[in-house]
Design goal:
Blueprint lengths: L1 H13 L1 H6 L17 E2 L9 H9 L1 E4 L5 E4 L6 E3 L2 H10 L13 H4 L4 H4 L16 H7 L3 E6 L5 H12 L3 E5 L5 H12 L2 H7 L1
Parallel strand pairs: 4-5, 5-6
Antiparallel strand pairs: 1-2, 2-3
Helix pairs in contact: 1-4, 9-10
């Protein structure tokens, strides 16, 4: 774990400008992260079959930092990052869930990224000017969610609702600044079902 933390710290240093003002909703404010509500969905009536029982056990709800509630029938294990900070955080906590990158790595950072991850496709970032977000590329790799981590932007809920209608994929936002990153990792752990791993970074 310590080796991964050091690697991520080095990547952030190499990409410092991007971490502070690059894609996604990343910004260096002091907004406090809202608490999440990640609770199992229980069925009031007795399950009619083993399949229904299994589905009830794995279903859960998650409320993102915009107050939008999502229900997942199965654990989220395929994630597209919305921007550079999202990319860094997801790579740190749950690299095997990534279906692509929002931003290209710099040549300095690439040497620290294993080939299995370095070769993931470029999907693009939603906000910012560095990379254009490709809906077609996103749909081609079929993530369970698009995860945005950073400071909220004006109109973000409406933007994400429109993208969800267009793609059928949930767009989830988690507030994060340098001060609230521990809380953000806790929410990410709840969302992805990796509480123990996320706690290392929280």
């Amino acid at each position: 774990h310590m080796k991964k933390i050091l690697s991520i710290s080095l990547l952030c240093a190499l990409l410092l400008t991007g971490c502070q003002s690059g894609g996604g909703s990343e910004a260096s404010g002091s907004t406090a992260s809202e608490s999440s509500a990640s609770t199992p969905v229980s069925s009031e009536s007795a399950p009619e079959s083993a399949s229904a029982s299994s589905e009830a056990e794995t279903s859960y709800t998650f409320t993102d930092s915009l107050g939008r509630e999502f229900t997942f029938d199965e654990p989220v294990d395929a994630v597209a990052p919305s921007g550079l900070l999202s990319q860094l955080v997801i790579y740190a906590a749950a690299p095997d869930t990534l279906v692509g990158w929002s931003n290209e790595w710099t040549s300095g950072a690439e040497q620290y990224i294993p080939e299995e991850y370095r070769s993931l496709p470029l999907i693009g970032q939603i906000y910012g000017t560095n990379t254009e977000f490709s809906v077609e590329e996103l749909l081609a790799h079929d993530p369970d969610i698009v995860l945005d981590i950073g400071e909220p932007k004006d109109g973000m809920a409406e933007d994400f609702a429109a993208l969800e209608e267009q793609t059928g994929i949930p767009f989830v936002h988690i507030d994060a600044t340098m001060e609230t990153m521990p809380e953000a990792f806790t929410m990410i752990g709840e969302l992805l079902g990796i509480e123990e791993t996320a706690a290392v970074y929280a």
